[in-house]
Amino acid sequence: MNIDDLEWQSRRLGGIPPVLVNLLVERGHVELLIRAATERGEWFCARAAVRELCAAAEFERALGVMEPFAEVGWEPARWAVADILLQAGRVRQALDRVRPDDAGRASEYVCQDFAGLLVKAGQVDEAISILTPHLDRSWLLSTLVELTDGQDRDERVLELIAPKAERARNARGAERWKLDASNAQDLQAQVLERAGRVDEAVQVLGADIAAGRFLVQNTLTAYAELLRRNGCMEELRALGTGEHAYIGLPYYARALEDRGQADEAEAVLRRFITADESTDRFLWPLIELLGRQGRTEEAVEVGRPTFDYHDACLLEGVIHLLAEAGRPDDALAILGERDAKFIDEHASWFHSNRIWLLGEAGRYEEALTYAATMPTNLYGLTASTARILERSGRVEEALALLRADTDVPAWEVAALLVRQGRAAEAIEGMPPLSELRAAGRRREAALQATRGPDAPPF
Questions:
Q1: pLDDT beneath 50, residues of the chain
Q2: DSSP assignment, residue 305?
Q3: What is the largest distance, in Å, between two alpha-carbon atoms of the chain?
Q4: pLDDT given at position 40
Q5: DSSP code per residue over 19-76
Q6: What is the three-class DSSP state of 134?
Q7: CA-CA distance, 337 to 333, in Å (whole number)?
Q8: Among 42, 33, 25, which residue's Cα sits nearest to residue 61?
Q9: What is the pLDDT of residue 173?
Q10: What letter does residue 271 receive in the DSSP assignment?
């Protein structure tokens, strides 16, 4: 185990990646995770194993897994050890382990981590103090609001947010684009709402939007969500049918649907689609509404005019809507309507989706025959074909196919084995980290070559 390997794992999702780790957790293979962490130095396995051990109150075992990572100087492991100690009730020891010095208090990231630990330890006021010098950063302002939720500190938080919100609503000129805490107004309304002051939250944020005194589109979204959560239909109607309809209308329509007024929701969406030159922005909310009502054919027809667009194409969304409704054959029929130019311009997307849909329809042999006609270098072809083989019960053929393709990462072979109840074999078959790093470098070099010499490096 060394820092270089750990940094590579973290940066590139290397080694045994989170997607495979999650699969192992879902199937209860905690002991395999522990072994991979201790014997191979697998960081993602260590994190997941510690989480599961702590959930089972096995804190000493969790420390045994994580301490070796901390001992080599891996900073995330030091914080993980502190969190284990805290969960074990060793509060002072946990905090002393990571308590920042003056240099640490100057680091936004250290303060964020330490504040989170302090809140878990019940020391909320100290957590607020740690964060206070850094609240010009939007993400730390969000952290403050998140960590203090349910901690009976809403008035203090509002005091800290108020000057940031005031600065945001009054920003003009160059400051408008340089101001980091552009989310202060959204967060102010959020804290007012959770403090039980909903009317005030709606009034303050609504006035800012009416006067155009906000910096980013997310503020409109936050206002629409606030109105919908609290059933403020008049205000939501004004937002959804006024100058900010491009944001507010889908929220207004969904709120109507939630209140049993689906017909009215559909009518208002169709009215705007007819009247607005940029009709595409409201097509998907209407498609979703029709889909929830089981009116799948109508949903398809709403999206159909966009299927050959280069931008704002709703084909993929409709394909998945049909698959989720148990109608993969209908989705295949829509794919079959695409012309040669479309297929050529979207080759990997088209062919991989056709293989997937044939599998969803249970037409495995047809899917495999079709896959066999594809160029061998088609992106994702091996994985798509292997999945069909697996679903049709031809597991060994699927494994052989994956293993024969040097572009397929080793974890995909392991994931198939785990799904087949062969988890120990999956982990044992994973190459050492050194080999995985080398394979990763080869794949990146090959991709870099296809991007050209002037493309930025990975």
A1: none
A2: G
A3: 68
A4: 94
A5: HHHHHHHHTT-HHHHHHHHHHH--HHHHHHHHHHHHHTT-HHHHHHHHHHHHHTT-HH
A6: helix
A7: 7
A8: 33
A9: 64
A10: H
Q: Which two tokens stand for residue 98?
A: 């990571």
CB atoms within 10 A of CB 292: 12
Q: Is 166 helix (H, G, I), strand (E, B) or coil?
A: helix
Closest to 385 (Cα-Cα) out of 403, 406, 364, 404: 364
Structure tokens at 411: 């974890």
Q: What is the pLDDT of residue 279?
A: 59
Q: Which residues of 400-438 are buried (b: 16+ CB within 10 A; e: fewer)?
A: ebbeebeebbbbbbbbbbbeeebbeebbeebeebeebbe
Tell me the two tokens of residue 304.
Answer: 């159909």
Q: What is the pLDDT of residue 176?
A: 67
Q: Say how far residue 449 (Cα) sits from the centre of its chain.
A: 29
The whole-angstrom separation of Cα 360 and Cα 353 is 10
CA-closest candidate to residue 5, choices 71, 72, 92? 72
- pLDDT at residue 180, as a whole number: 83
DSSP 66-118: HHHHHHTT-HHHHHHHHHHHHHTT-HHHHHHHH---HHHHT-HHHHHHHHHHH
167 phi and psi angles, rounded to 5 deg: -65, -40
Long-range contacts of 57-64 (CB under 8 A, 24+ apart): 59/84, 59/85, 59/87, 59/88, 61/34
pLDDT digits (tens, 9 = 90+) for 39-94: 999 999 999 999 999 999 999 999 999 999 999 999 999 999 999 999 999 999 99
Q: What is the pLDDT of residue 452?
A: 63
